[in-house]
Design a protein that fits this description.
Number of domains: 2
Helix content: over 70%
Number of strands: 0
Shape: rod-shaped
Order of helices and strands: HHHHHHHH
Strand content: under 5%
Oligomer: single chain
Radius of gyration: 29 Å
Number of helices: 8
């Protein structure tokens, strides 16, 4: 019996993705940062930053949930998540400029330590007391570091999704492959049944010859249609 290709592929499980876990940290830290360091009213930046941070994690989740039927949708939404991080990053960089604070350089000991801690901790419980107590410029630089790390993870995820889409195709391709496999299986069963129903060796040979003539005519028709003869 031939294996029938799956139409709905395994999907979900986004909470196990490090990129999603990091995006949750990015969202929670942004909520705390806005609450501590931006005006509660009269500043649209708060809404813009929290919406961008939320968009990142929500699009990762929605894309993962959609991947069973549409790899294309998953890829598109993951790219939206990546773009949301770019928008959020600009807001944090703007905050540093607006308040006369400096961005940590790559060789700054604080940046090196932040990168190491970012690789080791993808849970908000670890970062919460830090963002609740550290000054604005420190929180801002930490946020920038975590956003860069999350973007790197999403870049790797997008590359994987592109390869996966090339391998599996969309749902239309998988449905066609499944239908083709079923028709092939039905044809095999039909041929076997006709041969197996022969009462004598002579009848078996005659039925086999008839099936061969049908196959030959089909092959000839396909070659003619494709211009191969």
């Amino acid at each position: 019996m031939a294996d029938i290709p799956k139409i709905v592929l395994p999907h979900g499980g986004y909470r196990k993705l490090t990129s999603f876990q990091k995006s949750e940290v990015v969202y929670q830290m942004t909520v705390v940062f806005c609450r501590r360091f931006l005006p509660a009213r009269g500043d649209r930046t708060v809404d813009q930053m929290t919406q961008a941070a939320r968009s990142c994690k929500q699009n990762i989740a929605e894309g993962s949930a959609s991947s069973g039927t549409s790899k294309e949708t998953e890829l598109k939404l993951t790219n939206v998540a990546r773009a949301s991080l770019d928008e959020l990053l600009e807001d944090y960089l703007d905050y540093l400029k607006a308040h006369g604070a400096s961005q940590w350089t790559m060789d700054d000991e604080r940046a090196i330590a932040a990168k190491r801690l970012g690789r080791e901790h993808a849970d908000w419980d670890y970062w919460k007391p830090i963002f609740e107590t550290r000054p604005a410029d420190t929180c801002c630089n930490l946020a920038i570091t975590l956003i860069h790390q999350t973007r790197t993870l999403l870049d790797a995820l997008i590359k994987h999704l592109e390869t996966d889409f090339t391998r599996h195709g969309g749902i239309r391709e998988r449905m066609h492959a499944a239908r083709t496999a079923v028709r092939s299986e039905d044809w095999d069963k039909s041929v076997y049944s006709r041969l197996d129903a022969a009462a004598t060796a002579g009848e078996l040979a005659a039925r086999a010859a008839e099936i061969k003539r049908m196959v030959d005519r089909t092959v000839w028709g396909i070659k003619k249609r494709k211009g191969w003869q």
